[in-house]
Structures are given as C-alpha cells and as structure tokens.
Predict the 3D structure of the following.
Amino acid sequence: MIDEETPSSALRTAEHPFNEEHSELADIVIRSADFVDFFVLKALLSIGSKSSFFGHLLADSQPTEATRNGLPILGLPESSPVLRTVLLFCYPLDAPVLENIKEIRAVGETLNKYCLDMAVSRMQRSLIMSSLIKAEPLRVFAIAVHFGWKTLGKAAAKHTLAIPLDQLEPIPELAMISALDLAHLMAYHRECARSTQNLAERKDYALGVTMFWLRGHPSVNDLLFRQTAWCKWCKGRLSYRIAMGDGHGQGDVHSWATTFVEQAVAQLRRRPCPDAILDETLLGNTIIHSLTDCNSDGWKAIAYMQIHAFARLLATEVDRLISQVELKIVWPNDTT
C-alpha cells in the first residue's frame, strides 16, 4: 500500500467512469501510485472472483482512516494507466483494448496479484479477438503460460503455427516459461504439420490428388469440380483430377488445381495453419497458372472468385484438422 497522506495539489481524479461525477455510485476511492483517485463500486471488484483480494480486504466497511468525499481511500502501488485498465475489465463495460505486450504483462500481473478471476477471463477473451495475438503470438503464448491462462494460451499456440519452427526468434517472454513448455509447443507444431498432410494424397500413377474429406461436401458442386473430361470454358481436355475416394466420384480439372493443392500441402509442413493456404503469393501464382491452362473469357471472369473459394474450402479443412491436435501444456494455475 502507499501512503494516503498526500498533498492535495498532487492529486488528480480519474476520467469517466471513475470520476467524481459518478461518486454517488461509488463506495471507495482507489488511489494509484501516481496519485490518481478512482471512484469505484467495490462490489464489482470481487464479483465472480471468490478469492479476490478486494473481496476479503473490503469486507471491513472502513479499510482505511483516510477519506475523500466521505469515502475510504485505498492506496495501491500500481500506476494509474494499469489500474484504469484493470478496473475497466472489472466493470460491465466494453473491454479495454490492450495496445502492446508490455501492457499485457503489467495488467496481467495486477489481475493475478489481486485474484480478479472474472476480469482475467474478460481479458483473455478480448486478447483472443485482438490483432495483437496474430502479430505477436509467441509472446502472448509465453505470457499466458506464465500466468496459467489456458484459454488464451491455447489460442495463442494456434496462432504460432503461422511461424515456421526454424524461424522462432529469442524473445524476452520466453524467459517466463520453462524449456518443457517450449518443447510442448514445438511438439504441437510437429503434430499439427503431420495432421495437415491428410489434406490430400498423391498417387504416383495418377495425374491428380485424392481428398477423402471432400466426400459429400456441399461446396463441391459449386466449385470447379466436374465429372467430365472437357473444360466447360475453354473446351480443352482435362487431364488432371481431384478424386474423393472409391465410389465417391472425382473432379476433372486443369493442372493448376492439383498443383495448387500440392504446393499448399508443401507449405503446411512448415506453417500448418489456414493462412498458409490463403497466402496471397500462392493464390496469385495459382490464378496466373489457371489463366495459362484456360484462357477463355468465361474463366477469366470467375478465376479469382473460384480459386479463392477453393482456397477457403481447403483452409477450413486445415483448421478442422489442427483443432483436433492437443497442446500438452500442464496448466498448474488454470484460470481458463
């Protein structure tokens, strides 16, 4: 705790919704280390958190002798930006947006320190939907494992699949986890890579691939698969095929389609994630290849749409495959 005996000239009041305009709804003032006062409804600091520090401390109707506007003051050692974010996660308002890794660490440390379980859950959900988990998945993963946040850790691990194992960089947050945790992540990568190789099977004796999972798929008939030896657009012969297994038919295609599948599967060995399929360079080269195979005006008009639809179909299957792989991390402090 910090000393509540602070010169009034140094004090500031927090902004909405923790300012004096809402003081009639508050029953305590939380003072930060940099002397910013937050007018807070203390029940919101312990709801959904059985072991909340505030729930136990504030059971006493007057935890301190210092007051402001007749409300008791509780001084804390955290800065006002950190406390504001923590309090916003406690309040039933829109979750605050965490801008960087440093902020995640500071806010996460505070949430765990004061056992604010419901706020931790809100923070995890917010981060899972943020751009930060995509931009810095390994750093978010390490922080989540360190604090025992299973939900965020599993989501971040899935995003790390976009990073090839041979390109993992030394980052400060890796010091927060054990070598065993990192080994589990690397094993997860390898298992996801193995699972995605089931996307397609190449037969050496056939000009094409087999994708058993396409059997009965509702999107097949809407795409480029046709059980005919001739292209409906350029009228050229279709010498390649995408088969769906014995008794389930096949799609006769130009060479670009099977080449795309084979190149996608090759990329999945290093980056076993949907983004590897949706890579713009891969898709761009595939479109160019397709226009070489089929130079008709009809195909030119729909090539972009058809190839992107085909890629999304494959990406969805990749996501299904890797979602079945377990991340075998031990979560000793599972606050989910």
Residues 297-323 form the longest helix (27 residues). The mean pLDDT is 87.
